[in-house]
Write a structure and sequence with these properties.
By secondary structure, the protein is α/β, with parallel strands linked by helices. Helices cover about 30% and strands about 20% of the residues. It is built from ten helices and 17 strands. The structure holds zinc ion (2 copies).
């Protein structure tokens, strides 16, 4: 991706020399997610174009310099199926890391496929190979987890692990999930696993809402066929007239926020995770929607290595969950413009990148 709005170009890079502790991953799958569309629209600040997009990816270890150990404790060898946490160089020493315990806000933090320039090397998954620099958090892809389930979950699943952690769902909670994209779909599944007694999904279109049900939603409310007031009434009807214990925003649309505030019960909790780019301000009535409701609002930014590891064990232990269906179609490196166009038009929740396709 050479610049915002420019067509994706296929370029050749030299095979990198590996310093001790580094590895080269032969890419088997990567993804085209909503963030990649934002990157292509130029809506993320400080992106060092040209970049090789694709932050969450999976492959086989093609070469390694010295012994490699995964953060799951496994020894990794050439030929093993491996995955890695796309966030690297979190410093562990700055105020965000140490004092505030918010490592996802570390200013040294870098992310494969987003903040790493192609001029520095193979730091992205839309490629035949990915350079894994020393210190990148690696793990073996469990034998029971298919590539398509791992990438179908992908970055949305990692984000959802963090969202559900921030939400502190208790057994039996009524949870509303706003958004039925890759993040929302994973959030629905994890809310269920976390013990929610009722999960209501709000989103569109119909096929995503059908998938929302397969991921564990008890009820779905289609944005295209209901008004905000109808949705509020439906949530009240399902919760003894109180509203949801927990509302999870994974929509990224400004209007979702005032609506979410209205869907939460008095003393409830609202986690905002879908506003990854600045989509502008929205009117909020602080008296009615926050103060008088005694509402708790939490932001949720990025994910940490522990969310990555947890996502792997969730995939391993819940093989019935159809994460693979989130990744609707595979595209080769020569079809990435088409993949971006499909993701931009929201024709599919997520496009998968498979470099073995021409
Ligand atoms: Zn730091
Ligand atoms: Zn992503």
């Amino acid at each position: 991706m050479t610049a915002p709005r420019a067509p994706i170009e296929v370029r050749e890079f030299p095979r990198p020399d590996l310093p001790p502790g580094a590895a080269l991953l032969r890419t088997l799958r990567s993804e085209v997610c909503g963030t990649d569309v934002h990157l292509w629209h130029g809506r993320l600040s400080g992106v060092p174009y040209p970049i090789i997009p694709g932050h969450v990816s999976a492959g086989t270890i093609d070469a390694a310099r010295g012994p490699l150990k995964g953060i799951d404790g496994a020894d990794l060898r050439e030929g093993d199926r491996a995955v890695f946490f796309d966030v690297h160089r979190t410093c562990g020493r700055c105020r965000a890391c140490t004092v505030h315990r918010t490592p996802t806000r570390c200013s040294s933090r870098r992310v494969y496929g987003i903040t790493d320039s192609a001029d520095e090397g193979l730091f992205g998954g839309w490629a035949d190979a990915i350079y894994l620099e020393p210190g990148v958090a690696l793990a073996r892809l469990p034998d029971a987890v298919s590539l398509d389930d791992y990438i179908g979950g992908g970055c949305g699943l990692l984000t959802a692990v963090h969202i559900v952690e921030r939400a502190e769902i208790r057994l039996g909670d009524a949870v509303v999930v706003q958004g039925a994209g890759a993040v929302g779909l994973s959030t629905i599944a994890l809310s269920r696993i976390a013990g929610a007694g009722l999960v209501i999904a709000i989103g569109a279109p119909a096929d995503r809402l059908a998938l929302a049900r397969e991921m564990g939603a008890d009820a779905v409310l289609d944005l295209a066929f209901t008004s905000a007031e109808e949705r509020r009434q439906a949530v009240l009807d399902a919760t003894h007239g109180e509203g949801a214990d927990i509302v999870l925003e994974a929509a990224g649309a400004p209007a979702a926020v005032p609506e979410g505030l209205d869907l939460a019960r008095v003393g409830g909790r609202y986690v905002i995770a879908g506003h990854y780019t600045d989509v502008g301000p929205v009117p909020v009535n602080a008296h009615h929607q926050i103060n008088r409701k005694h509402l708790e609002i939490r932001g949720c930014w990025g994910s940490e290595a522990r969310h990555f590891l947890r996502a792997l064990s969730i995939l391993e232990r819940h093989p019935h969950l159809p994460f693979r269906k989130i990744g609707a179609r595979r595209y080769g490196l020569g079809q990435l413009n088409e993949a971006l166009a499909d993701a931009e038009a929201m024709r599919i929740p997520k496009a998968l990148v498979d470099p073995s396709l021409s």
